[in-house]
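Students often ask why we bother predicting the structure of a whole assembly rather than each chain alone. The short answer is interfaces. A chain on its own may look different once its partners are present, and contacts between molecules only exist in the joint model. In this exercise we take three input lines together and write out one structure for the complete complex. Read the inputs first and try to guess which parts will touch.
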Amino acid sequence: MRSLTHAPVFRRKLHAWFRANGRDLPWRKTRDPYAVLVSELMLQQTQVSRVVDYYARFLDRFPTVHDVARARPAHVREAWAGLGYYARARNLHALARTVTDRGRAAGATFPRTAADLRELPGVGAYTAGAVASFAFEQRAALVDTNVARVLARVFAPRLDPKRARDQRTLWTIAEAILPRTGRATWTHNQSLMELGALICTARVARCAACPVRSVCASAPAAPVHRAPARPRRSPAAG
DNA sequence: AATGCGGGGAA
DNA sequence: TTCCCAGCATT
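Now the answer. The structure tokens for the assembled complex follow.
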């Protein structure tokens, strides 16, 4: 992998860009672990644009994790109808019951660390990192398809983000470039995914609009601004 | 390491 | 058409 010398500059530029250009998505307004979990489960392999409405309707119908835990499986499934990957709805239901069962009657007890979140049904490495950093503002790394692509292009252009073996390296990079605090990690992880979603996309890397192109191993060198060329003869000419 | 799982949008 | 999308569980 390429050296991570540029990580501090990368972070600074990325975060500044995100604050100015990040989308105003509903799940970015909350730190409620239940709401964050719902959004993350819905977003697995599913585009943001299609999740927005389902997310609002689902929380309207099941405002708390207790409402899901109490519900009949068929009703949860019904709220999920059309989204696809229905195992996610079953997992959410099972997860809700787990979280409310072991808590006391009043409050649900969500695991707060990525390692503990990982034990919940339907929660893999990515979702565990997402809930840890987005709901609990923990200093946890996360690598989804966006982050894998961005990190590979910026820091390790020889890695193939789709290759399973290279993913391990990408997780190592993701952890290595994490900011110091959990609060900053929230912004950091959101920023990474947003860059992958808006600028550094799968089909086209919009390098001209990219805030981190100056430290990117894959971006073409910025076009040099220079005065009109003086007439010049090639060495061979004459 | 591969595969099944949904459905829709974009190139 | 193909590829891709805030992946995960199972084999």
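Check your guess against this: Confidence is low (pLDDT under 50) at residues 228-238 of chain A.
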